[in-house]
Amino acid sequence: MFPQRLDAPQAYDIAKAMMDGFNRHYRLFRTESARAKHRFETADWHGQQRAQRERIEFYDLRVKECTLRLEKEFRAGEQPMEVWHQVKLHYIGLLVNHHQPELAETFFNSVTTKILHRTHFHNDFIFVRPAVSTEYIENDEPAARPTYRSYYPSRDTMHETLTRIVDNFQLQREFEDLSRDTGFVLAAIQRRIGNVKLRANFQIQVLSSLFFRNKGAYVVGKVINGFNELPFALPILHNPQGKLVIDAALFGEDDLQMLFSFARAYFMVDMEIPSAYVQFLRSLMPRKPRAELYNALGLAKQGKTLFYRDFLYHLRHSSDKFRIAPGIKGMVMLVFDLPSFPFVFKIIKDYYPPQKDTTREQIKGKYLLVKQHDRVGRMADTLEYSEVAFPRERFDDELIAEIQKFAPSQLEISDRDGDGQQEVIIKHLYIERRMIPLNIYLQEAFDTGLQDTRAREQMERSVVEYGNAIKDLVAANIFPGDMLWKNFGITRNGKVVFYDYDEIEYLTDCNFRRVPAPRNEEDEMSGEIWYSVGPKDVFPETFGPFLLGNPAVRDVFMQHHGDLLDPAFWQAHKERIQAGHVHDVFPYDPERRFAHPPQAPATAAA
């Protein structure tokens, strides 16, 4: 019910306390993001990784703080529903002229559902839809930094303008030769736009903050000429001598999609108005959902909010049914999907076969590890939800039976909100971008026949990419555990990405060993293991029989990635990581890199 009067004296105070909680959260979030510049300038790579991990926890800590304050000062959980209606209206009033209203709405939802102990169904008290527009928000204070800067070069001043664009970020570390590097960028731009006529509106727009991730800083912007827009990103790295270089020039939507991939760690960006950054980025990548852009900027809770709104909108405009996901069923996770929706839903089963010595809490810990770790473009990001309600009529009966059999503790079927409609309520689930399982993708090539040129190329490219994916994970201190083809998927861009995390381990926690020589003929003929195996022991030589049964696959794998079967490869990487080395893993193809005489920067791990 919409309140006729705002007459509850405590309603405004509760709303104001919630807004104070959000403002504190975003102030701390932004401060940590801004410190990324100093960490980049001082080459504090371990500090950068630590900050990226810790920043993910900020949101839940602030929600908890705010919830405790509201309970202590206002006994918020005991307030009648009429008061909570008024709290929401007061909060909407506080969002007017706010610079992060959409994030503040999500914060309100998080706190309210904690206090009222409701999540999926009590929509009167949360922001199911945004109440305040995020369009055209800008800080009008004279000293405020704009969302983006515009530059208006001519052909004659392009080089000078590119140099000024980089200089304006005021990086406190010397470039090896900025004029040379901006010359490389200019040549790359000229190759893209050629000798076309420069129109009256010819300009370069660049977001005012650098994007920091791992060991790189990225300039992000677009070249505008008439009706044409060319998105670009310029990665800035440290060379072996500790000086800065522009490493490459990335152009177009596909390059930017790779940079902002859901399989990569979140950026650190100092943004006062995140919605304006997202709007600018959407102009560069119109096919990228806003939810994924908020995720990429480190605002994962807002990403979850937008994803769920997109999902509800899709449900209203579709009629197909949720089903058991195609492919080999997992031992630990029950996976289902909606054919018309490009994501899969994963539930942790209640029990596992004996060879899977794990628990629900351990599996949740593995997924949290992936969330907090650098995913180097090779591990799919996951969205984690609790108490999610689906319309019962949209669930295939076979899927319901599957959940009742393998995860009954996670399932409730009821009319919880009393509207006469049965709902399927899943207690806890993960949602991931849907990919083609690698084993299915390879089988498609085999079914076509490797005598077909395209089928052979598909097979070869997949096997090479599979090995590259494992090597990128190794560089990021990750051992996948279960390396079977079915645990990897193919993305729209042909990248191989890992997505089964229940056996994942830090590489540095594993003990890579050679298989001991048999002691006698009886050992050699035995079908049993005759040597001791510790809980973290790994024997790379034994990977082959599980992965390389097909001779054509084996030939390609051994040609490109035979070192993965050698314990020395794994041990060498483990020792380098333990010695403090942080590998370079680039979100673009190595051939895109500029040649920097006399010595190139450190090469990528894969």
From TrEMBL:
Cell compartment(s), UniProt: Cytoplasm
EC number: 2.7.11.5, 3.1.3.-
Keyword Nucleotide-binding attributed: yes
Pfam hit, one: AceK_kinase
Domain of life assignment: Bacteria
UniProt domain Isocitrate dehydrogenase kinase/phosphatase (AceK) kinase: residue ranges: 320-589
Reactions catalysed according to its record: L-seryl-[isocitrate dehydrogenase] + ATP = O-phospho-L-seryl-[isocitrate dehydrogenase] + ADP + H(+)
Annotated GO MF terms: kinase activity
Positions of ATP binding: 325-331, 346
Keywords on record: ATP-binding, Cytoplasm, Glyoxylate bypass, Hydrolase, Kinase, Nucleotide-binding, Protein phosphatase, Serine/threonine-protein kinase, Transferase, Tricarboxylic acid cycle
InterPro entries in alphabetical order: AceK_kinase, AceK_regulatory, Isocitrate_DH_AceK
Domain Isocitrate dehydrogenase kinase/phosphatase (AceK) regulatory: 15-319
Active site residues according to the UniProt entry: 381
Chief location bin: cytoplasm
Transmembrane intervals: none
Nucleotide-binding among keywords: yes
Similarity comment: Belongs to the AceK family.
Task performed by this protein: Bifunctional enzyme which can phosphorylate or dephosphorylate isocitrate dehydrogenase (IDH) on a specific serine residue. This is a regulatory mechanism which enables bacteria to bypass the Krebs cycle via the glyoxylate shunt in response to the source of carbon. When bacteria are grown on glucose, IDH is fully active and unphosphorylated, but when grown on acetate or ethanol, the activity of IDH declines drastically concomitant with its phosphorylation.
Matching NCBIfam families: PRK02946.1
Protein's UniProt name: Isocitrate dehydrogenase kinase/phosphatase
Gene field: aceK
